Amino acid sequence: xxxxxxxxxxxxxxxxxxxxxxxxxxxxxxxxxxxxxxxxxxxxxxxxxxxxxxxxxxxxxxxxxxxxxxxxxxxxxxxxxxxxxxxxxxxxxxxxxxxxxxxxxxxxxxxxxxxxxxxxxxxxxxxxxxxxxxxxxxxxxxxxxxxxxxxxxxxxxxxxxxxxxxxxxxxxxxxxxxxxxxxxxxxxxxxxxxxxxxxxxxxxxxxxxxxxxxxxxxxxxxxxxxxxxxxxxxxxxxxxxxxxxxxxxxxxxxxxxxxxxxxxxxxxxxxxxxxxxxxxxxxxxxxxxxxxxxxxxxxxxxxxxxxxxxxxxxxxxxxxxxxxxxxxxxxxxxxxxxxxxxxxxx
Length: 346
Prior knowledge:
Elements: E1 4-6, H1 19-25, E2 36-39, H2 62-68, H3 70-74, H4 76-82, E3 89-94, E4 102-103, H5 107-114, E5 122-129, E6 135-140, H6 146-155, H7 158-163, E7 165-169, E8 175-178, E9 184-186, E10 190-196, E11 203-204, H8 223-227, H9 237-243, E12 244-245, E13 255-257, E14 268-272, E15 279-281, E16 286-299, E17 302-307, E18 311-314, E19 321-333, H10 337-340
Antiparallel strand pairs: 1-18, 2-3, 3-10, 4-11, 5-8, 5-10, 6-7, 6-9, 8-12, 13-14, 14-19, 15-19, 16-17, 16-18, 16-19
């Protein structure tokens, strides 16, 4: 087994974007509503059968191939804990307009009300920006009352919601972890690799002005139950600082963790930047996003060229590998079972 190159996988969305993805991949711009490229996805869009699933060059769904050989794709330790789930969803996300304020349920809520062991903690690895001040909005600046939140949602008071969220200017290289339950929105002009738990659970607090059915943003739970998953307590500045890593120059190590430790129970990400020596990779299922430059990745009996704009699915059975060249890539990984169990709903 060896890594498999993946083509674009961009289901239509309710918000605008996609130009940065096309420029990154060297493909044609779509209809303007293809702002997300679901990379190595074994997760369908909520309420659909197969929309959002990755097809391999063979025509097979990655989900089906992994299910047929979970140990080969995911490794015996991962498969023993997660079964045939990759426990990871990766996207390229290009916000052609500000996204609405929304929230994702945590594992406990998802287990009780949606029958899933996974919620939807996510993170953003910013790989490009446009505009004078690209921003993201994350977490309340003060405690928000239950009736107050219901009123904002009922009145579709976007000004109040945005005005009570932390507003962060971001730059290429910044990373932000978004804990499940935390209200958030991505601003226009932000281009990111998004790592998530493997679900498509979103509760829309804001829907006016977007192509969203007000009755469709509650996961079929009803508005009152759905918005009960929102964390209404303030996100302190200290807690916010723990979730954000600002751009730093390349270090001496060819493999560096990209995310804060708060991400560990849900996913991992490594920046691979070989220097005079090749970067050594331990066996794992991974989604690779080649950010810059060109090089190669090699393992026992295989060697593949890499270039900016490519994405790959890498099976555990690819074994130990090395990356060499004038290149930077992001290696997106599922959580280690020992870390994931720290926030298990089971």
